[in-house]
Amino acid sequence: MSAQIVVRKSADRGYANHGWLDTHHTFSFASYFDYKFQSFGSLRVINEDIVQPTTGFGAHPHREFEIFSYIISGELQHKDSMGNVEILKAGDVQFTSAGTGITHSEYNIHPTLPVHFLQIWVKPDNPKLQPRYQTMTFPKTSKTNNLVHIISPVADQDNSTIGINTDFHMYASLLEPGHKVVHTVQGIKEPRRAYIHLTSTGGNLKINGITTLRQGDGAFVTEIKQGDEIVFESVGNENAEFVLFDLA
């Protein structure tokens, strides 16, 4: 395998601090624009957000995107126009297929603790889908020194993953220092690509023994195909928590 890996440093992402919200943008979003970073295949948004206590995103609309949140720490209250109300905690992944249109709000109702999460948007293959909501929990114990499959295409998902309407897979891992996991590239459509995001919570991550990510860094991986292997190793003094997107 001759995978090409390009690192996106944490400090090179878009950044804004609104007081109640501290946010980093991997791709162009809101007032941040960089023509070189607008999307990666169907992956359109990766925002790493920290929301302060008793604040949050008021009700706002979405349509034609698959939108999901990966909770790193704290608690996030979700409410939407489909009638869903839920308190999300670390390990939860909350998924909304916005389809023809939904409205939702995301609030940190905790009195003292911030909530830290990834907000991710993916473009589905087909427009005008029926809106859908799902939450699944992937506890720390399941991700420790393991690569857990979280999202898979609806055509081949089972009860262990959340279904998405495109050729896209998401995984997550929490690697202790010195531990490794191996990902075998999935998917149907060729060529494949992958994006890895190391959360800004500590730890360093080495990819294929040559490329090292530090807190908040990401990596674009191209020149890969189904069946290739990508090796991840925690090389810092702290646990390395990361998410992996495997897509067409």
What does this structure look like?
The protein is built from 1 helix and 22 strands. It is mainly beta and 248 residues long. The protein has one domain (4-247): Sandwich (Jelly Rolls), CATH 2.60.120.10. The strands form 4 sheets. Strands 1-20-17-22-15-13-14 form a 7-stranded mixed beta sheet. The chain has a 7-stranded antiparallel beta sheet with strand order 2-3-4-11-6-9-12, with no helix packed on it. Strand 7 and strand 8 (85-89) form a beta hairpin. The two termini are 17 Å apart. The mean pLDDT is 96.
End-to-end C-alpha gap: 17 Å
Computed Rg: 17 Å
CATH superfamily: Jelly Rolls
Number of strands: 22
What top-tier CATH class fits best?
Mainly Beta
> Strand count, sense and closure of the main sheet?
7 strands, mixed
Low-confidence stretches: none
Could you name the key traits of this structure?
248 residues, mainly beta, Jelly Rolls, seven-stranded mixed sheet
